[in-house]
Amino acid sequence: MPGLGSRLGRGGATTTQQSMGDSDCIVIMGANMAENHPVGFRFVMKAKQQGATLIHIDPRFSRTSAMADIHVPLRAGSDIVFLGALVNYVINSERWNSDPFFKEYVLHYTNAATIINREFRDTEDLGGIFSGYVPGEGRYATDTWQYAGQEIDPGMAQHPVQDVQAREGGAATGTPQAARLDPTLQDPFCVFQLVKRHFARYTPEMVERSCGVPRDLFLHVAEEILKNSGRERTTSFAYAVAWTQHTVGTQMISCCALLQLLLGNIGRPGGGILALRGHATIQGSTDIPTLYNLLPGYITMPTSTPQHASLGAYLETESLPTGLWYYLPNYLISLLKAWYGDAATEENDYCYDLLPKVGGDYSFEAMLLMMKDGIMKGLFCMGQNPAVGGQNAVLARQALANLDWLVVRDIHEIETAAYWCDAPEVRNGEVSPQDIKTEIFFLPAALTPEKDGSYTNTQRLVQYHDKAVEPPGDCRSEAWFMYHLGNRLKQLYADDDSPRGCQLRALTWEYPTEGDTEDPDLDVVVKEINGYTVADRRPVQDYNSLKDDGTTASGCWIYSGIMPEDGNNLSRNRRGSEGAALEWGFAWPRNVRLLYNRASADPSGKPWSERKAWIWWDPAEGRWTGHDVPDFPATKPPDYQPPEGAKGLPAHPGDAPFVRMADGRGALFSAASLKDGPLPTHYEPFETPVDNALYPEQPQNPAAITFPRPDNQYHEVNDPRFPYVITTYRLTEHHTAGGMSRWVPWLAELQPEGFVEISPELAAEHRINNGDWVTISTLRGETNAKALVTRRIKPLRVDGRTVHQVGMPWHYGFGGLAKGGIANDLSSLIEDPNSRIHEAKSFTCNIRKGRATANGEQETR
Amino acid sequence: MGIRGFVQKYVGMNPNPITRKTHEAHSRTRGTSVDISICPYCAVGCSQLIYSKAGRIIDIEGNYESPINGGTLCPKGAATYGLVHSPYRITTVKYRAPYSDHWEERPLDWCMERIAQLVKRTRDASFEEKDENGLTVNRTLAIGHFGGATLDNEENYLIKKMWSGGLGIVAVENQARI
Amino acid sequence: MNSNALIPPDAQSSLIGSTDARPGAVGFLTDTTLCIGCKACEVACKQWNQLPMDNFGFTPTSYDNTRDLGATTWRHVAFVERFPNSDGAVRMPPFQSSWLMMSDICKHCVNAGCMQACPTGAIIRTEYDTVVIQQDVCNGCGYCVPACPFGVPQLSLSDHKAHKCTLCYDRVKESLEPACSKACPTDSIQFGLVDELMGRATGRVQELKERGVDGAYIYGDRAIGGTKGIGGLNAFFILTAPPEVYNLPREPELPQDKTIQAYLSSIGAAIAFGLAMVLSLCR
Q1: Are the beta carbons of B42 and A277 separated by less than 8 Å?
Q2: Which domains are seen in chain A, by residue range?
Q3: Which of A172, A251, A698, B17 is most buried, judged by most C-beta within 10 A?
């Protein structure tokens, strides 16, 4: 996630679930941890039993709220007002200004003292936009956001690569040597003063007005968090997709990172930010991405731009002079060697030309439009259910129906496989199977216990699962499918000397197979991911061994170290469960459990306190030691100062914990890595019933990515036709779009039918009784669900008026045992500019009592 | 004792002999092989024990040794057995011809070959060596991929490698986005 | 709410935390203050005991679609929404307040009504002091159903026999923890020796009170729940609201206690009638 990546250097969770057990205060916001991560929640309960305060900030009173000491019902989508007000409260509080801990942490470990280009103008100056906005294009040029003295070529600032994806690593050019600092934090253009000014109007009163949260409740939360941060105490945050799924989702997360940096909670036990991922290996699928804009290890996918026209140009553009990204040539060339083997030579740029180049937005939502518009003809869908889980699911099903061919690999006959015969539009006669041209293959998949492989959990922990039994019938693993399909394609192109033939023929694809089904031997794949020296094919120890001269190969540099010796797959480590449990699984990078853990010691290398000791400098041994693997060069002393002209990690001083950032500091101000501003700013959700109380002239994120077209219409701000805020979510009893739960009897019976949660007040307005049918509508579509009238949903007073919110689980569809209206028939295609994630956590809708039956009659029960 | 105590103690207290079946009751995991797995649902990363006998899974439970779940599971994790043995699980290939109104049974091998042919046909018809500015792009936009996040890391590696590195398919996306 | 009202006025302090469980008895402590309502216990139970799906349908009663314990549902998580005021309270009592969740189960009573009522000897008290229905003996007469003050055993529609929790007799025999308590992510359900669990529960209630959960108490000791001849529940609970809120009887009693009165009065009536007849004949 660029939200954490932009400020800390990596997008992964900074902490572990277990470490939350050592928190003194836990804030869960943008997540419903007890319901969606019940087993992880046991560490929250552990902390709570030890006396920690649990705060849940969420529009709905959920099973998480039931366990909290404080529940804060806030209006969906107003999170940055709340978080910004916390920032404002903290930096103006007496405690923060008088306790030397905070000043020391912030001065050394963040870029608070760095002076920014004096041409920079804040949203406070420009009515809700930052300097550099290119009107007509909906995006920013970032030259005025740079560190002073390091102005970049305005052409670079508008570098089209930046249009494709925000990247990790902070400042484009923020090298530590050249940065101008004001350690007094008084310069009006130093980061600290810019932050202070930016959030000055984010007050408790503004929280009350915009979030609908009483002022006193906000202050109570702020006091608890501040009280539980410092030398002796730590506060942790947990978030999930209720932050990511907004047009300002990345900035919500980045605002949390900013706050946690100010509070000195990053890199310390019981502190940090736990990004709660919702599926077994969401983290792994971004580390080893099946994402259009990334290569393994968060290397930017090359684009069809002059800056990426050759390997040299690419590396020139994408490497940073300092920090870990200085070594990008080692990582990329090793990846090219892993993929193209002997074909990749220095003379041919290691086959860089064979990598396909990204020329636009091919993210999930854009792909739906490519399908519907006939650009995309064939689709592989493996373990995903876009007919239910895709935004604007009506459009998603139309997109599927316009494909020439579709391969679905799954367990059950999910809606994505059955849309042509079973979708609402087919059942009501609008579409007939005879109209749908798509050739569809349903290939049954093997389940986890039926195959070898690894998942990377929410805390970056890679864990292996062993094959227990053979899969039944035709069921096969995806590894089997890819390996054998790849072989067939290689045969089909065996004599093809065209560039497309060469591309495939150059690819290394020799994997030994095992068993009756001839599954590829995954140990060989793991070794390729880990990396090896080309000459003798011995595994490398970690990514520090990778080279840029073609002598090493590695499929994903951040996983390097997972197999340090042949056959020794550390993700199969299953020893010891105490403390950091370093011998249980393998955490990237290099088995580090708490990221940025250099910050758990003070600048001189001593633990901030005994209670919160994690790693520290051992002067006798001349190395970092403690409970964890140091996320820092192991022998770099705390007082190390880089020599003039140093590059890479030696350019960072001994007190710079954020090794992936160019300047080694946490970025309170993010100079170039975010596309909608260096500081988090409150914009309303794209669809909202209220004005932006902070920036009336700029209601929505000016950089949000929209797809306005007749089949994807948006509601105006305060559109009287759609007066209610709707938020979608998951339940403990089901999983995502239901493919793994709605067909399983023991889960289906627990939540057997779709429902919509509404407050008694709103129910009364529409004379809806508990259990009645309700129709929910937007300009994208209409769906229905049973009413669950509950006081857990509360009308809020926002800006002097009542705002009603309704909630709807998005699990349900027309297949399986547990059925229900599809919530995503209501949502729209729209994206956060940084992550290209949609906005399903806050949009607007209308409701009415009853639903139309198949024969057009109305029914209410 | 009084009549109340007497009744409590003796009324209904027939000899109630323990039957042979009760006497011989035992855990069905006795004598099974045990493999270690990870729960396929959310990303907490619970370790599971898979008990199987004669190639059939007969029980799935939490693994006490895990530092994450310490033996516990949530309802979804506890239902993994129900997922594996789901009465609605499909274990044979299904094929739907264009414009057809029904599924057909087809051999797996036939499908694999047919899919390979379709990939080649679609790719060949759409492959771009250079874009409109003359830059080498070596890509096709006509084929896409949606992946779920229950696919293994190793599988994702093979997917990205073959689709993007081998075939020039750039529109490769994952549930991680949404 | 006056939380002291939870404790029946006649409850004697000597009964609190005490039970008549036999030495070596095992059971469950279900601490509702730690329950997150995830229903892992329901599923783990069904998985281990291979119980089918049942009660299919949307209730709409909070998040409870299981409705009740039954022949094929041996754990049931009840959900009770109770918001004392509609405005967001700045401070809530810690550990479950406005939304109560409780995982209900067979109580494995020290003196079990079902067992006393069973005419076939199918229901036994095991060596662990748990109460088990032997399926090879049960003839489905159903006498145990009304005999249980908690409504636990039910007749199955498929095999017409009575079923309920066995406290995982087959697992406990092999020193394995029962499925529900093993699965419980937050240790809301704890398995162990009743004596130990009762001690733990007493301490936990004390701790909860110190932290402001005034209404916490044990349900299933001789003071509350294990009343009127039952002598305690081997599967007992920590609750924070009156028993009725969880659909539990405040003072459960053995139905036999009622039948004893009726029985004695019928004997009396028979004697009186007989005497009257004899007297009338004597005239």
Answers
A1: yes
A2: 2-278 (3.40.228.10), 705-859 (2.40.40.20)
A3: A251
